[in-house]
Design brief:
It is globular, with a radius of gyration of 23 Å. Helix content is 43%, strand content 18%. It folds into two domains: 149 residues, Rossmann fold (3-Layer(aba) Sandwich), CATH 3.40.50; 277 residues, Rossmann fold (3-Layer(aba) Sandwich), CATH 3.40.50.
C-alpha cells in the first residue's frame, strides 16, 4: 500500500539526532522522494516537543545514540505525549532485546541506520528497504486496525444488545508493585462491560495513575479531558449530567473516560475531595466505574479504594511481587483505613509452568482469588498498536480469563436465567457462564 494513497501526501517526518552526518544523509536521501519528506530536524529533545506540537508530522525519527538523554527514554516520552505521531527508533545495532524494550515503551518501529552516510547509492537503497518499508508497514497495521474497528462497529446494531441497569459499582484496579499489567486489565475490563455482546453495562473508566497515565494510549485516544477539568467542583457531592458531559471523553464503544494529566506535578494537585466528586458523579450515571489506580497510595487512590464496592488486587506470581504486596496489605491492616474484605486477587501473567500457583498466591496473601490470567504475547502487540484486546481479540487467552473474572464481579454480564431464549436457568447457569464452559 502506497503512502500517498493512504495519507494523501508524502509521509512528513521530523528527525531528532545529535549526529550531523546522519542528519545530512537522511535529508539528502529523502530530498524529492515521492513518498517521504523530511520537514524538520533538531538535536534537542525539548525543541522536538515544540516541533511535534507545531508541525503535527506523521513520523518522528529518534536517534538511539542520543548523548544527553538515552534515545529509548526520549522516544518513550514522545510516544506517550504524542500518540498520533509514529515514533521510530534509529539504531546501529538492532537486536531482539532492543526491539522488545522499544516496543514496550510505545515505539512503533526500530529502523537500522544507513551504514555509510556518504554512499549515495547505498543511501537510496536504505530509504526504500528500511525507512519507506517501516512507514508502509506501520500504515498497514493502522489500516487493518481501522478496518477491524469498522467491522466491529458495523456489527453492533445486529447484536440487539440490551443495556442492563446494574447496581452502581466502583471497581478500582490496584497493585502494590508496578509493571504487573494493571492498566491493561483496567482498560479491557471497562471495555468488556461496555461492549459485552449480550448484556451491556454502561461503564466509565477513570485514570488515577500517578504521572502520565496509559489508559488513553491503550484506547488510542487523546489524553483529554483530565481529572483536573473537574477541579473547580472539588468537594461537590456530584455534578449534573450536562456538567459531567463537558468533562469526559467517549470512546467509540461508548465507554466514558476521564484521563490523567500528562505531568507528574499536575497529578499531585488531585485531592481526595476532587477524586470523590469525579467518582460520585460517574457512579450516578453508570452501572460500573473502573478506576486504574497508581501503586502509590495518593489521596485520589485512597478515596477510590475507600469508595470501592470491590477492589481488584493485581499480583504477578513472583516472590518479589508477593513480598511487596504482603507488606502493603499489612500496613493497611494496621492502619484500619480499609477493610481487607474488599480485596479480591487477580493473578496476572501466569506462566504455563509457574513455580507459584494461583492458590499459593491467594493463601500467602490471605485473600480470595477471582482467577488467573495467563501470560499472553498478544498483550504487548495490542498495547503498542492501541488495539484493546476486548475489541480486537476477544477470544484470546487474556480475554477469556478476564471474562471469567468479570462475571464474578459484575453479575449482569452473565446472570443465571437471562439467556437469549430465557431457558438458561433450566440448563444450569447464565449464558456467559455456558460460553466459558463453567
Amino acid at each position: 500500500m502506497s503512502v500517498m494513497s493512504t495519507l494523501g501526501h508524502p509521509a512528513r517526518m521530523v528527525l531528532l539526532t545529535e549526529d550531523s552526518e546522519l542528519q545530512d544523509a537522511i535529508n539528502a536521501a529523502t530530498f524529492g522522494h515521492p513518498e517521504l519528506k523530511l520537514v524538520s530536524y533538531t538535536p534537542d529533545p525539548h525543541e522536538m516537543e515544540l516541533l511535534l506540537r507545531e508541525m503535527a508530522p506523521d513520523v518522528c525519527l529518534v536517534d538511539h545514540s542520543l548523548v544527553r538523554e538515552g534515545g529509548v527514554q526520549v522516544a518513550e516520552r514522545l510516544a506517550k505525549a504524542f500518540p498520533d505521531v509514529w515514533v521510530f527508533l534509529l539504531t546501529d545495532s538492532p537486536s531482539r532485546q532492543l526491539w522488545a524494550e522499544a516496543s514496550a515503551r510505545g515505539v512503533r518501529r526500530v529502523v537500522v541506520k544507513p551504514k555509510d552516510p556518504h554512499d549515495r547509492r547505498a543511501l537510496a537503497a536504505w530509504v526504500e528497504s528500511e525507512l519507506l518499508a517501516a512507514v508502509r508497514a506501520t500504515i498497514d497495521v493502522e489500516t487493518e486496525q481501522r478496518r477491524q474497528m469498522e467491522r466491529w462497529e458495523s456489527r453492533q446494531p445486529e447484536r440487539q444488545v440490551r443495556t442492563v441497569a446494574a447496581a452502581p459499582l466502583i471497581v478500582p484496579v490496584w497493585t502494590a508493585k508496578g509493571g504487573v499489567g494493571k492498566t491493561t486489565i483496567s482498560v479491557n475490563l471497562a471495555l468488556l462491560a461496555q461492549t459485552n455482546p449480550f448484556a451491556r453495562v454502561q461503564t466509565a473508566l477513570v485514570d488515577f495513575e500517578e504521572g502520565a497515565g496509559g489508559t488513553h494510549v491503550l484506547l488510542g485516544m487523546p489524553s483529554t479531558p483530565t481529572v483536573l477539568d473537574w477541579e473547580d467542583h472539588a468537594g461537590d457531592p456530584e455534578l449534573d449530567r450536562a456538567a459531567m458531559e463537558k468533562r469526559v471523553a467517549h470512546h467509540k464503544s461508548g465507554l466514558t473516560c476521564v484521563f490523567q494529566p500528562d505531568e507528574l506535578w499536575q497529578s499531585m494537585r488531585i485531592s481526595g475531595e476532587l477524586a470523590g466528586t469525579v467518582l460520585r458523579t460517574l457512579r450516578a450515571a453508570h452501572g460500573l466505574v473502573v478506576v486504574d489506580c497508581s501503586p502509590t497510595l495518593t489521596d485520589a487512590v485512597g478515596t477510590a479504594l475507600e469508595m470501592a464496592s470491590v477492589i481488584l488486587l493485581v499480583v504477578e506470581p513472583t516472590k518479589a511481587a508477593l513480598y511487596k504486596t504482603q507488606q502493603v496489605l499489612n500496613d493497611l491492616a494496621r492502619s484500619d483505613r480499609l477493610p481487607l474484605e474488599k480485596f479480591r486477587v487477580v493473578v496476572n501473567k501466569l506462566p504455563q509452568r509457574s513455580l507459584i500457583t494461583e492458590a499459593e498466591v491467594a493463601t500467602t496473601l490471605g485473600l480470595t482469588s477471582l482467577g488467573a490470567i495467563p501470560f499472553d504475547p498478544a498483550v504487548d502487540a495490542a498495547q503498542n498498536r492501541s488495539q484493546p484486546l476486548a475489541i480486537y481479540q476477544p477470544n484470546g487467552p487474556f480475554m477469556v480469563a478476564l471474562r471469567r473474572i468479570a462475571a464474578k464481579v459484575i453479575p449482569e454480564l452473565g446472570p443465571a436465567g437471562h439467556g437469549r431464549d430465557g431457558r438458561a436457568a433450566e440448563r444450569g447457569g447464565g449464558l456467559l457462564s455456558r460460553l466459558l464452559g463453567r
